[in-house]
Structures are given as structure tokens and as C-alpha cells.
Design goal:
Strand 3, helix 3 and strand 4 form a beta-alpha-beta unit. 29% of the residues lie in helices and 23% in strands. Helix 1 crosses helix 8 and helix 3 packs parallel to helix 4. By secondary structure, the protein is α/β, with parallel strands linked by helices. The chain has twelve helices and 16 strands. The longest helix has 20 residues. It binds pyridoxal-5'-phosphate (PLP). The site of pyridoxal-5'-phosphate (PLP) has 14 residues, from helix 9.
Length: 364
Amino acid sequence: MQTPYYLIDKARLLPNLEKIAWLRENSGAKSLLALKCFATWSVFDLMSDYMDGTTSSSLYEVRLGKEKFAGETHAYSVAYADHEIAEVLEHSDKILFNSIGQLQKFADASEGHIRGLRVNPGVSTSEFDLADPARPFSRLGEHDPAEIAQVAEQISGLMFHNNCENDDFDRFDEMLALIEDRFGAVIHKMDWISLGGGIHFTGEGYPLDRLAARLKSFAQTYGVQVYLEPGEAAITGAATLEVTVLDTMHNGKNLAIVDSSIEAHMLDLIIYREPAKIAPNTGDHEWMICGKSCLAGDIFGEFRFAAPLKAGDRLSFQDAAGYTMVKKNWFNGVKMPSIAIRELDGTVRLVRDFDYDDFAAALS
Ligand SMILES: Cc1ncc(COP(=O)(O)O)c(C=O)c1O
């Protein structure tokens, strides 16, 4: 298959999904895929066997969730526009507002729909200011319990999203206790609570049983249906970006230029200034892997190999599913990676290719 392409491996996706299903069975918590993280719908059939639906951040995501993923469809947006609201309602089972202002503004339009409100508990686990929903002056949700209590009659659920790649159960537990302390009274009035995404519960060694027990007792204490909104946890490790070395150079370091671009095809890594991952990353030869865009810093990282690289060598960047495929772009007109799926029986099928027409159609 012609590189570059994203390769989603169902055999690597499945263990995550099995943990998600186990958690539901043992805690009662439903899991909705966060489409902002991963929206490659060709594997939604498999995912929907283990998950309960999707959650979204925009009209287009909520529509995709409704059309492509069986189960419940939650709509959320930092702000809905007047011209979007009817379609958002049409495509969703529940609508979550980010502010009391938006809840009031669309009170009539959303009458009779299941409604919720995002709450900002003021604590989070984000290591990056850029991604911290509880950062100072955050616009992500209402924070005042008294103000939220005043609109409690208009809603039946709340959404808290304050975990970010959190693989520490004790920290999750502590933060949930803070949420209970501050918002317990209003939670008691609700039918459902979403605890958002960011809990890295599919990771190796995560105490899933403790998480299940905590979620179950939370649900019982408040008489609520708990939802989780895993993005990263659902697809972690499930995809690679397959590339080919086009050229090599030496300028103080060994440089290999590949037929892809971190700026265009793994943008999230550049934003957070993190290198891509190559496995096993061992050997005597160190090479800087560079993208083919003209951005000077279009560099995937420095990795170790058993032998010197040469044009034609194939490389595979790990963990290319989350916040990667959803952010790919046409910078420099670099060929957009195709999308391929490795089925459970090992066969690989190409599900999407992109060409010049797609590039041209993205602008006008
Ligand atoms: C409201 C909400 N839910 C779910 C998620 C998914 O988070 P993650 O991919 O870290 O699990 C996010 C991520 O930003 C979010 O903002």
C-alpha cells in the first residue's frame, strides 16, 4: 500500500474496548466515545459493540455520531449558534450547554429535550495550560454552585470534565471527592452525571476494579446514571502512521526525510512539543526523522535504529489515532495519509484515499 497512511489495527483496539465494556458491567457507568479525539467512523461498528454512543463538541460531530455510531448521542458545544440549534437537537438524545446563558437562550428551543449543563469544578490534572479546563478565567463550564442550583429545575444532568490523561486513580478519586463536596447538593437533584474524559483507565496496570467500585458507589449515593466520555482511553495504541524515507542528509546529525509531515499529520505533537513514538527505538544509529513540509521545525523526533536509514525504508509512528487523524490538514499540499484498517483476521483494507481533488476542495 502506498504510504503515507494511518493504519488502525482492530486487534490493538479491542483490548481497550473490552476494558470499557468490563467497566460498564462492573460499575454501571456508560461510556460515550469523545469524537473530538477520534472520529474515524470506519471502525465505529466494532466500537459500538462495546461502547454506549458518542459525545461531541460541534454540530458536525453530533451529526456524525448520530449517523455512524449506534447508541446514545450527546451534544455539547462551547457555544451553539442560533442557526445550529435545531439541527443539534434533531441529531442528539441529550443536549449539554456550556453556560447558563446558553441554557436560557435556548430554553424554548430545547423544551422537552433532555438537557444538561457543563460544570467547571476548578480542579484538573492537566500538565498543559493549553489543555487545562480549570485554568484561570476558563470559559469551560459554570463554576458557582449557587448559580447552578438556580437552574437545576431546567436540567437533569451535569457534565464535569477535569481529568486529562490521568492515569492515577487516587488523584481521580480525590478530585471526585472535591466535586462531591462542592456540588453534592445539586448532583442529588440530577438523573445523570457525566464525568467527562481523560481517565486513562485502559492503560497497563490501571486499577479498573477500584474505579468501578468508586463509580458504582457514586451512582448509588446520588441516584444517577454515570457516563464517561473516553477519547484517548478508547483508542490508545490502536493506530500507527506508516511512512517511507524519501531522502537522507547529514548536517551534524543524520537526517531522514519521510513522505509525511508532523505539522500536517500529527499536529497535536507539535502543539504540545512532544516527539512522535517509534518502537523499539533501539540500536546504534541515531537519526532525526523530518517531515517533508518546508516548516523548519517539522521534525518527528530523534530515534535509534539497528542500521543506517536509507531512501525506501519504511517507518511506523506509534499511537497515531487520538487527536491526530481529526487534526490532519493540507499544509504544503502534502499528500494526506490514506486510512487503512487491519481487521481481526489480519487482512488490511484501504478505506479511504485522498487525492488532489480533496486538496483543491478544501479551499476555493
Ligand atoms: C468534554 C470532554 N469530554 C471528553 C474529552 C475526551 O478526553 P480524552 O480524550 O482525554 O479522554 C474531552 C477532551 O478534551 C472533553 O473536553
